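// run 5 | inverse folding | seed 20
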């Protein structure tokens, strides 16, 4: 038993560090994408701004750790061993799930994943507890049953609230993002530099006001909380700290009890209760200093907002007169505020569970010490987790440090970021998603509605609107921004305002969902989704949204299965699952590495397409020469493999073929885009390029048929070739290889 407890806690700490790396890799897109997509600054500058926000946010997150301890399950009904099983199942699932999404490049919500992991593991553990104690299974679903002295093993109301929050955030963020972006573009147009003197300063001031408000409510207000408890729960807590306590506790208006660290917990009787109601006490935890600051601001909110608006206006007015761009400052402030809020509120998703495990051990050891070392981990109930437990600031600082390391060194951040940036790009890009029936139907319906509205609006008004939404033609540069600073500032400001609104209304809006859907709504309103890309990008949005729901279901069932294994096999099951998780992480790392190499090769291919006459002819000839030599090698390997019945030779030939096929497929996929941007004088060069590419694909198709035929001959153990057949093939090989080499040499020389 002790081995399982201590090894489990050690693994829990290691998993917490890994979870920070995989979690930040997924969530970093929330506060960096708008800056990355608009090229508001160098990538390192964006990282430094985000780093400052992460560190400050991590230090202000002490009050948010209760979700792991009591947000989903009621800990007073679970033993120390039970909660350890839940925590291990949650962390093992979280790492696998987030790493999988990072690898495929899908942004998902760490909040949703942690909540449904806790729910899935808790249901399994609670079910086993009920079966062991011969209790009715409906205790799992009771939310409030005072006659049975049951408040329910699980907090189903929290789950319902989170699901409703998901749906609300998706619809609300997309709609508001689209509306605000449409109005902003109408105000600025794409030639926004001309509007910066007045309109830009006013817009930047309003955006800064929204983000200042956001920092207070999202970044600071969530750092403290008040917990409501009953008299029985206070008695249970006192007994959990000191199982041998016999003195009677007098319930007055204010009760003070020592916690596990020897500090005073002050319970205050809730005011406004009816005479017949059960007495409810409230206990505060978090930073009282921050609460006092926020209370003061709330009491003087109008003065605070007006002052912040005037100061912002004065700053941006002077900054613009000095030659600066106010929209860049808005984007930078957005990075900082969203990064701070992310660390302050989402850090619990990564280290909340490991810290809850440490606090559980601290509670058990304190009670066990008082009891003379006679407590059993499988019998000691964790009522103490329901009460305030201060997270050491050193742990928070270390967590912030690991978040910063993940931000700077995680290679999967750019993969996840690329998904959102490409879906929001103003220009044509290599589309990452395939269209489907739903996306095609939406586009066709939108076109019909657009045509209908076009017939209603006066022609002069349509012309003016189209002029405001006509993008500036930019050079075809790989380093060109995906969208401009107007859209980047809208994304930051709207996401900040919506999250602030949701927090003040106590609605669980996911940071990931809000930022992603705002970006998609703004890109739609900005006409970034034209007829060439709309079906693919709408399909991409639906794919990402579907991934969010897959996150919830996968988190629930995977955590439930792991909890089931740990309950039955304890340490052996833990070692087995850790081995599986480690293998999965290694596999996804290698897979992501291969994907990056393939992506780099595709980008090199795209960059190599140059239809200016001299360069195009030289590059095409050079590549064709090398490709023909590779085809010659593949053909020779295939025949050698056939004649000697050597499967490895056939595999080597297949690898050469796959490499050439990938290259020329990438050429074909990017050629249409290059031709559209080519000049009329380059028409003959483009025709030559297309013709040579088509001929090479025909040759590759013939090579494929030869390789497949030989491969099937060997795999199916057909009769060896006769001497006459072998001699004929060898003569053909000599002639063909000589012919291919001759053409290759000619292309190289000319």
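// decoded
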């Amino acid at each position: 038993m002790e081995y399982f407890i201590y090894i489990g806690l050690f693994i829990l700490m290691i998993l917490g560090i890994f979870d920070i790396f995989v979690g930040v890799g997924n969530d970093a897109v929330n506060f960096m994408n708008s800056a990355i997509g608009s090229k508001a600054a160098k990538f390192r500058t964006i990282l430094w701004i985000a780093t400052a926000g992460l560190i400050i946010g991590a230090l202000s997150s002490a009050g948010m750790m209760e979700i792991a301890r009591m947000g989903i399950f009621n800990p007073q009904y679970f033993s120390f061993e039970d909660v350890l099983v839940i925590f291990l199942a949650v962390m093992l699932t979280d790492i696998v799930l987030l790493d999988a999404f990072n690898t495929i490049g899908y942004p998902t919500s760490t909040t949703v994943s942690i909540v449904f992991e806790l729910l899935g593991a808790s249901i399994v553990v609670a079910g086993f507890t009920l079966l062991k104690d011969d209790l009715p299974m409906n205790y799992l679903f009771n939310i409030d049953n005072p006659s049975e002295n049951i408040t329910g093993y699980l907090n189903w109301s929290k789950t319902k609230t989170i699901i409703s929050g998901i749906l609300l955030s998706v619809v609300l963020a997309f709609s508001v993002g689209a509306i605000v972006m449409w109005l902003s573009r109408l105000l600025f147009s794409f030639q926004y530099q001309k509007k910066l003197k007045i309109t830009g300063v006013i817009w930047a001031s309003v955006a800064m006001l929204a983000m200042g408000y956001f920092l207070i409510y999202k970044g600071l207000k969530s750092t403290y909380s008040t917990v409501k408890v009953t008299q029985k729960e206070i008695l249970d807590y006192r007994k959990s700290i000191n199982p041998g306590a016999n003195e009677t506790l007098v319930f007055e208006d204010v009760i003070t009890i020592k916690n596990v660290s020897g500090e005073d917990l002050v319970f205050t009787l809730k005011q406004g209760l009816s005479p017949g109601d059960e007495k409810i006490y409230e206990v505060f935890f978090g930073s009282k200093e921050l609460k006092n600051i926020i209370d003061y601001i709330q009491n003087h909110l109008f003065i605070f907002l007006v002052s912040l608006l005037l100061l912002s206006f004065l700053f941006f007015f002077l900054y613009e007169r000095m030659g600066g761009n106010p929209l860049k400052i808005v984007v930078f402030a957005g990075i900082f505020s969203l990064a701070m809020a992310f660390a302050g509120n989402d850090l619990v998703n990564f280290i909340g569970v490991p810290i809850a495990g440490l606090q559980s051990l601290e509670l058990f050891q304190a009670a066990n010490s008082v009891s003379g070392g006679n407590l059993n981990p499988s019998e000691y109930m964790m009522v103490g987790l329901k009460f305030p437990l201060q997270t050491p600031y050193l742990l928070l600082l270390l967590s912030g440090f690991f978040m910063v390391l993940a931000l700077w060194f995680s290679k999967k951040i750019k993969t996840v970021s690329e998904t959102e940036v490409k879906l929001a790009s103003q220009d044509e890009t290599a589309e990452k998603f395939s269209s489907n029936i739903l996306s095609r139907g939406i586009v066709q319906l939108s076109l019909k509605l657009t045509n209908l509205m076009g017939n209603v609006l006066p022609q002069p008004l349509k012309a003016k609107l189209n002029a405001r939404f006509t993008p500036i033609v930019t050079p075809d540069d790989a380093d060109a921004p995906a969208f401009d600073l107007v859209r980047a500032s809208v994304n930051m400001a709207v996401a900040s305002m919506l999250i602030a609104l949701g927090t003040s209304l106590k609605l669980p809006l996911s940071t990931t969902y809000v930022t992603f859907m705002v970006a998609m709504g703004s890109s739609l309103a900005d006409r970034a989704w034209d007829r060439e890309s709309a079906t693919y990008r709408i399909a991409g949005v639906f794919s990402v949204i579907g991934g969010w729901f897959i996150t919830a279901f996968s988190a629930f069932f995977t955590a439930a299965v792991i909890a089931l294994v740990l309950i039955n096999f304890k340490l052996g099951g833990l070692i087995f699952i850790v081995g599986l998780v480690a293998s999965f992480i290694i596999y996804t790392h290698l897979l992501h590495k291969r994907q990056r190499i393939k992506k780099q090769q595709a980008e090199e291919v795209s960059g190599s397409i140059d239809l200016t006459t001299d360069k195009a002819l030289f590059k095409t000839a050079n590549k064709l020469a090398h490709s023909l030599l590779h085809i010659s090698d593949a053909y020779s390997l295939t025949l050698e493999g056939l004649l000697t019945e050597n499967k490895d030779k056939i595999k080597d030939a297949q690898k050469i073929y796959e490499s050439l096929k990938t290259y020329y497929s990438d050429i074909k996929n990017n050629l249409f885009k290059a031709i559209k941007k080519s000049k009329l004088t380059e028409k003959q060069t483009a025709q030559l390029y297309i013709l040579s590419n088509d001929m090479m694909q025909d040759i590759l198709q013939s090579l494929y048929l030869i390789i497949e035929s030989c491969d099937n001959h060997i795999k199916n153990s057909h009769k060896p070739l006769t001497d006459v057949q072998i001699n004929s093939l060898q003569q053909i090989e000599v002639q063909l290889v000589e012919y291919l080499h001759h053409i290759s040499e000619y292309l190289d020389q000319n």
